[in-house]
């Protein structure tokens, strides 16, 4: 689906917006980001900004800021569609963050095992 966010007007539902952003090319993501930055800052707009910040491959990508904004938005009154989009994306981001922590831990453990093997092999 192709759409253009009308400045100051309604756009697609938040889940649809997120799906479109995730499927977009990097150039289209950048275009979406630039459009979002100039639109009126209502709740729906703030949600779209947070959702867009959670999507990589454009100049506004910042997963940590997106997570913070989504958490803040979830503490406010949102429509069911807005709340669903924010919760789903935040859950995805939290899972990805947890995976990165686990990968880093595994890399550190692997490096320690390799170092032990080097010492053992060097002692023969």
UniProtKB/TrEMBL annotation:
This is Uncharacterized protein. It comes from Solimonas fluminis.
């Amino acid at each position: 689906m192709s759409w253009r966010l009308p400045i100051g007007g309604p756009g697609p539902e938040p889940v649809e917006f997120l799906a479109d952003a995730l499927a977009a090319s990097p150039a289209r993501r950048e275009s979406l980001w630039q459009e979002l930055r100039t639109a009126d800052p209502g709740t729906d707009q703030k949600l779209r900004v947070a959702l867009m910040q959670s999507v990589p491959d454009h100049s506004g990508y910042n997963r940590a800021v997106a997570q913070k904004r989504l958490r803040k938005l979830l503490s406010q009154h949102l429509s069911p569609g807005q709340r669903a989009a924010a919760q789903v994306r935040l859950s995805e981001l939290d899972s990805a963050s947890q995976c990165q922590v686990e990968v880093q831990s595994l890399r550190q453990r692997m490096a320690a095992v390799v170092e032990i093997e080097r010492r053992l092999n060097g002692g023969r």
